[in-house]
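[recover] target loaded
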């Protein structure tokens, strides 16, 4: 039996998920987007209908409200929209109280999820050698709604947790020398640049760069569909990375 989906946000990602759903044994039974004439305007029990799970790729300005509404209706939810990281613990509590399930991620690419595992192990390794400094760079097209990207925030968090030499992250322009304890993670927005994230390790002798570059949105859509199928019948609050880790076990 196919997994029934309600898409919240019917922009580029919503349409991509809809176009690929059948290939992953899913079907879209409803979509909600006040800016799309093809969709319902509001989240209600009636507009979600008989969907098994909701997938939100909307906008940072409305994502938190969307999450609250879906949890209140007791539906499992996949959240690919960023901009609500300061509310994680509150949403976790709500999900657990409602007895439903939620998977969230700044990046639903399966390749990116494996990339973060590689970065984690690399940071741990280079932490033993203080002649290597760590830095980050992310680049996206000029239509991206946020800067730095949610993925850059996640990668910086991984570095902070695993590098004893870094105590804070600098995303903004400093107009001064970068201090040794600061992780400099730069952002670029221009043209049609595909989503690119790089973590580098530099010494006087050499440079090592780990890079993930998106070639199409298909990877994000397939990851979201995988998460949708996985969360049905489960309870709890999971990051996409946690889901991938469970699948790799």
């Amino acid at each position: 039996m196919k997994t029934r989906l309600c898409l919240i946000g019917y922009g580029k990602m919503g349409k991509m998920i809809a176009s690929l759903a059948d290939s992953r044994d899913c079907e879209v039974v409803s979509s909600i987007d006040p800016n799309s004439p093809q969709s319902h305007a509001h989240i209600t029990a009636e507009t979600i209908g008989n969907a098994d799970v909701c997938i939100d790729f909307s906008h940072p300005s409305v994502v938190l409200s969307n999450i609250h509404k879906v949890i209140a209706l007791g539906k499992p939810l996949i959240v690919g929209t960023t901009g609500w990281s300061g509310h994680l613990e509150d949403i976790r509590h709500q999900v657990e109280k409602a007895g439903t399930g939620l998977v969230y991620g700044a990046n639903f690419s399966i390749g990116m999820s494996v990339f973060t595992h590689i970065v984690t192990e690399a940071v741990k390794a280079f932490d033993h050698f203080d002649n290597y400094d760590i830095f980050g760079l992310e680049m996206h097209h000029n239509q991206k709604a946020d800067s730095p990207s949610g993925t850059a925030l996640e990668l910086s968090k991984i570095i902070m947790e695993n590098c004893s030499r870094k105590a804070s992250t600098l995303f903004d322009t400093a107009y001064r020398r970068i201090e040794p304890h600061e992780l400099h993670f730069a952002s670029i927005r221009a043209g049609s640049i595909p989503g690119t994230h790089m973590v580098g390790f530099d010494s006087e002798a050499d440079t090592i760069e780990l890079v993930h570059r998106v070639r199409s949105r298909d990877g994000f859509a397939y990851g979201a569909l995988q998460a949708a199928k996985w969360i049905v019948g489960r309870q709890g609050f999971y990051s996409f990375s946690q889901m991938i880790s469970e699948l790799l076990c």
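[recover] notes: The two ends are 26 Å apart (CA to CA).
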